[in-house]
Amino acid sequence: GSIGRLFHGIDSDGLVCGVDTGVEEKPLLFWCMSAQVPTGASVTALSLGRRVCVESCPGGMGDTVQDCVSSNGTATPDGYPTKVLVGRYCMPDLDRYRDAAREAISSQLGGFDERAAEMISSIPSAWPALIGALVLAVALGYVHLFLLRCCAEVFIWISIALSVLGLGALGAYLWLSASSETVESRLPEDLQLSKSASLSADEEHCYKIASIVCWVLSIVALCMACCLRSSIDAAAACVEVACEAIFEMPTLLMAPAIKAISKGLLSVGLLYGFLLLWSVGDTSGYDTPLST
Predict the structure, then answer these.
(1) Coil, strand, or helix at residue 9?
(2) pLDDT at residue 227, as a whole number
(3) What's the pTM?
């Protein structure tokens, strides 16, 4: 397999642009102009049929793409204004050929497999963000350990307080939303969805029931925090002692970083193997005209 097969378009002959033999120096996929379109005509739409690999995208109607000439005469070498999309495709200019661009995208990414491959193949391109996230996660993990070492009890009580207040605020929001004017009700009548009075009443009841559930959970959390205060204080003291022990033993202090790096490398290896396996599949071309 070759991961490059996932990063480039496939022409009508089944060749992966920029990867397969014969098109190694042609990384971009171009949709040819149909022979049915009059040469030199000022058209506002295109009929796209044959796809070929090109070195660079045509910039205007005067450019020519000789590879577009097909044996059955369905395509013409005439070019048209295009723009490079994600470094892989020569998409028709959206300002002039919006319908053609939409048709081309649908033909290339219309199926589930194509969309999935396109999304997965974009993961390696985001390696700076992924490495940054890994470094930030490790750093925040050490910050969290340091804060637990200093004030674990404060953290625990702040978390409990935020949980209680959050549930109470959510319940209040749901209760007010049940009786307040909705956004849809402020729209013109011809734009509103038709709903029966019973359906609206059921929605209001659901909102109020959900708000009552949130309030009950908030009260339960508050009661449990008050009843188990001594246990919470003891647990916080144990956490502080455990963090102190971690900071006194360098090997334990390095454990989070080693664990994060190991998981990151393992994820990279698994992802690379998965992409290789995905790229093993055969590709086949087709020459189906796309009418816009």
Answers:
(1) coil
(2) 92
(3) 0.48
